[in-house]
Amino acid sequence: MTGSHLREIPVRTAVRSSMAGVRTALQTVFVLALFFGAVSLSDSAQYIIRSPNGRINWSAGEIITSGSGSPVDKQAPNATDAEAAVYSIAMLNAGQNLFNILQKVRIDSQFRMEDLAARDPQLLVKAREMVYASPEVEDSRRLDDKGTLTVSLRFQLHGGFAQLVLPREIIHVDSITRVMPGKNAPAETADPDAYTGLVVDARNIGTQPAMAPRILDENGRDVYGPAFASREYAVQKGMSAYETDFDAAVVNPRIGDAPLIVKGLRTDGLGQCDIVIGNADAARIRKSSEHLLFLRQCRVVIVLDAPK
Question: Where exactly does CATH 3.10.129 map onto the chain?
Fold first, then answer.
């Protein structure tokens, strides 16, 4: 390539290409380091809400709770029966703790799980069945010198539970097909300025996590929310990822190597989980030729303050 050809490349395209290369390298280093154990995702880097008997990890999309059982029948026929009774009690208590925490999970800015359950008792029944079918956390059993056994359960917010509680307006959206040029039109080329995902910096405005957050412009119009996401993506990976580390968020593989980064101005709604961004940023999202695709696929990361 000659020098004159190099000068014809738009500056913005060249810069973005360079940044994409740096981002890809950082992502590769991060993944390799994680694989080989050089990097560990500490709890402080994830959005975790803790309670006495468990925690909701919004970054991992899971709830982990523990429960304990103590010897109740010293006259049990044999040690095996006694151990089984203690284990059964511990699992029952862990399940009840999990169910209690699950009811407080915020679905959207208006409803928590308990609000939906109050409207639909059958939903509560299904959720309880999911809770008591939750797998035990591997190697979580702890037995103290008094014979008290503690076990832990893991519950996924994505998958079956998300299918159960996500708003019905999140529907399956067929693949978006771009209009092909006419026979005499120039061949279509990839948009060098197309964004691959969205990072919303929602720190310092009191934002809370939810399973179905919305992003609004200053006029209250949706930029992202249930109407934009395709249900299979929202169910399997969540409508957004939550991070507390901005540097980790911008290299999250979920949002690709050329994300658009916007700043949250304030929250909206009862639950403080809907985020208002500037009209200029909203216009940038809407202007992107690929924005429907990356929003449909839920390629969104929201950065929050670490919970106190």
Answer: 43-165
The pair of structure tokens assigned to 220 is 């209250």
Phi-psi region of 112 (alpha: psi -120 to 50; beta: other; left: phi over 0): beta
Judged on CB neighbours under 10 Å (0-12, 13-18, 19+), 90 is: buried
The terminus-to-terminus CA distance of the chain in angstroms comes to: 55
Spatial separation of the C-alpha atoms in residues 244 and 175, rounded to whole Å: 32
CB 198 within 8 A of CB 290: no
Q: Is 166:211 a contact under the CB 8 Å cutoff?
A: yes
Report the alpha-carbon distance of residue 223 to residue 283 in Å, rounded. 9
User: Which residues lie closer than 8 Å to 86 by C-beta, 6 or more apart?
Assistant: 69, 70, 71, 72, 147, 148, 149
pTM: 0.79
What CA–CA distance (Å, rounded) separates 83 from 148?
Answer: 10
Class of domain 43-165: alpha beta
Q: How far is CA 190 from CA 18, 78, 266, in A?
A: 17, 71, 35
Segment of 23-27, 36-40, 184-188, 206-210 carrying the highest mean pLDDT: 206-210
| Tokens 């120039």 found at | 186
Q: What share of the chain is helix, strand, coil (3-state, %, to 5)?
A: 35, 20, 45
Tens digits of per-residue pLDDT, 176-208?
444 333 444 333 344 556 889 999 999 999 999
Beta bridge partners of residue 150, listed in sequence order: 68, 142
- Over the stretch 229-279, which tens digit does the pLDDT of each residue have? 999 999 999 999 999 999 999 999 999 999 999 999 999 999 999 999 999
Tell me whether strands 300-303 and 241-243 are parallel, antiparallel or unpaired. parallel
**Helix or strand run (H / E) with residue 32:** helix 11-36
